[in-house]
What does this fold into?
Amino acid sequence: MRALTGLANIAKLALFVGLAGALLAFTIVQMAPQTYTLTHANESVAEEIDLSRLDDFKIRSFVYASDGSTIASLVGAENRQPIALPFVPEPVVQSILAVEDADFYHHPGVNIRGMFRALVENVSAGGIEQGGSTITQQLVKNTLLTADQDFDRKSREIALALQLEKQLSKDEILEKYLNAVYFGSGAYGVQAAAETYWGKPVSELGWAEGAMLAALISQPEANDPTLHPEAAKQARARAFERLIAEGALTRDEVQFLEQVDVPRYRCGREDSPALLCNGQEPPPPEDYFSEEVRQQLLTDPRFGIGSTPEERYYAVYGGGLKVYTTLDPQAQDAALAARDEIAPKSRDGLTASIVGIENGTGAVRVMVGGPGFENFEYNIATREPGRQTGSSFKTFVLLTALEQGNVPNDYVDGGGSFPNPGGTPDPYNIQGRGGTLTSVTTSSSNGAFVRLGEIVEQENVIDLARRLGITTPLSPELTLPLGTFEVPPMQMASAYTAIPNGGIREPWYLIDRIENAQGETIYQHTPEGTRAFSAQTACLAAQILQENVQSGTGTRARLNRQPAAGKTGTTDDLRDLATRLRERGISLVVDLVLNHVAREHPWAERARAGDASYRDRFLVFPDRELPDAYERTLPEVFPDFAPGSFTWDDDLEGWVWTTFNS
It folds into this structure.
């Protein structure tokens, strides 16, 4: 029996030796191309590698408010935010090294032992299934080569890896790899992956998270914990085993870490639970301001991010831009709260748009474009043709009259009616009393302003409107002064800034500065002010409009503790209830739009009656100190006139017009 057993063992041994010999012979044949690859690799690279190609990947861009807070991130197909190696914690680094390349700091860019291990897998598969690639090789493959799996590409990969190790340190290579590798869910690089799966920066990750990241690299889709949690746990367990083998963790430590669940949600999405995303709230939905910024970046070549639409698209969604805007977050929040209270987010009934522009610079500090971007993407504030301006357009007629040499006490006849066959409004609405320029402005006399439009000639009114930035169609018709033509609220607010700015019109703008991914400023807004009318006209108009707010139809725009000047506009059927007013340093336009005729709408009635509750809801800088950028005293605005023309009112906390010295 023992003899038979011995013979059986000898037979098994002979069979094993025979198979091993056959495998060795087959392996030698299969190794020939790779042996040639190893011995001749350096001959494939005649010159040094262009290192800039290693960083030629897409990086998300950010949009910031004027205080530096983030208001939007612009992410394309690749969500990536590079991070320096010192900010990547050891648990993440060691986990990835243990799984992907444990000998990283000891090989010259190619690991012969790993290649032989991969060779066995490739022989049994009948082709290249496993690359045995080091981290250096993976970086080369991901950034410098195509994804083809053949021996020629492998030869090139090895040659480039050996060359790269001569040009960069190990830490430099590892940092570039950690920023380039894909972790699934659209996340490229460890920083984006940490934010995607845990809602926190990579610097806050520990061993459980590090092992999960390491497990994702080889199979990012199959091991995605948000889609396949059980597969992800198994892959993480294999990563833990590698960490134990490398001596980074003990078995007891791993048993404790395995109790930590894998992430089940992708953070940074609207349905992401804050509790499971490190308290991170879902991102705010796209809003009118950030969307307007995005559209300007994509369509306007003046920002220097590309001369073609394709170049600009790549820069916005992959160029790592930092876009600094003019938005005042506190004022914007107040305006949004007012909008939501007065005109709840709905396509029906009352909607509101609000625009606030800094007079001296044209910087847009507030912009609410409608009832809510998620349901109504059309931006009422900026899109043409806009809304009927109503009596607010009378200011352009007034400015034209003053520019032609008239003064506030000059008389204009408003009696009688004007033929307006088939026009809007009908002849009755074009009646009105005459009076001085000041009195017909405070009473908003339709008849007087139609007559004044004829006197100064409507073509001249249109010409002035064009100098003030109005671009929508205007015709020299009888009813032009009554605001029957449509103008976007943004253009109206921008035009009004020229009055407190001494007749100088600064075009409105949203983007103040742009930096590229290297932190270099590639765009800086510069003033483009042009004179629309004289400083004398500006002073006279300010005097009349302040009187209008104190005692005329603009009393509903009067602000407690702040000097204001403005002209209100109400179009037929109450479709538009507009209040144009000036806060200290800000020209504010509030546009209330009734999609359906509703004269009894409570807020429409309050606005028309000048209810203080309506006025206060749109005071977007209430009870707080304005930033220094907003401080513009009237004597500085009107340098052509002596400071004695203005006196400081302690109750109003502002400059008050008292006299005019021509």
Summary: The chain is about 40% helix and 10% strand. The CA atoms of residues 92 and 210 lie 4 Å apart.
